[in-house]
Amino acid sequence: MRKNVRVGTHLDPAIAARLRRNDDGLVAAIVREHGTGDVLMMAWMDDEALHRTLTTGLATYWSRSRKEYWVKGATSGHYQHVRSVALDCDGDALLLSVDQEGAACHTGTHSCFSDVLKAAE
Amino acid sequence: MRKNVRVGTHLDPAIAARLRRNDDGLVAAIVREHGTGDVLMMAWMDDEALHRTLTTGLATYWSRSRKEYWVKGATSGHYQHVRSVALDCDGDALLLSVDQEGAACHTGTHSCFSDVLKAAE
Lengths: 121, 121
Known about the structure:
The structure is a homodimer. Chain A is mostly beta strands. Chain A has a single domain (about 15-100), classed as Phosphoribosyl-AMP cyclohydrolase (Ubiquitin-like (UB roll)). Helix content of chain A is about 10%, strand content about 35%. Chain A contains 2 helices and 7 strands, in the order H-E-E-H-E-E-E-E-E. In chain A, strands 2-1-6-5 form a 4-stranded mixed beta sheet, with helices on one face. In chain A, a hairpin with a 5-residue loop joins strand 1 (about 25-35) and strand 2 (about 40-45). The first copy, chain A, is globular. Chain A starts with 12 loop residues before the first helix and ends with a strand. Mean pLDDT of chain A is about 95; it is low at about 1-5. At the A-B interface, strand 1, strand 2, strand 5, strand 6 and strand 7 of A face strand 1, strand 2, strand 5, strand 6 and strand 7 of B.
């Protein structure tokens, strides 16, 4: 068994072969809103979360704190309907374009990136 | 000494206190082009890389492979002039808005996210 590949996933092997996972078997997932172009959040996926995202059309992550799959919106209703998914050049980050229902952030804000360290010039 | 805080940084302690670093002392940095809104790349920063980014206005990362600070563009000329920086709600990801000189990706493409796994609907 290869290190960092979770068993039992149905992810297309041709895609799985292009992923470069971290020590926890995860790749980063950057989420961008289709209509506005706003970057909403970043979360993490293992192979199976990516498989579910690609096949169900609902953004599905691996929760590092809860150690479980997490369909974004399953409890909040704030689902992310996935329009496209791209992988970066070194295989360790995904970019999702989504239609976001409600607020993306669990704090209730549109985007998770609301703590401004340097304001726009 | 606190775990995961690199010594010798001059990062504002008020900002440093809000970062939630991974086991390597790093936070993710998502880079977005100001003019187009395109997501260009993802890289990593430690406290000092963030300090240098905020104070020089040039995006500066920590290279995990080379184990050194990396001013984006220092060798390629493809500098990133930083307009704004925001931190996400759980402190482990930054969003930079930049003016990008040339191609963001080392492969020569505009964005690193050019491997389409699911095409836009």
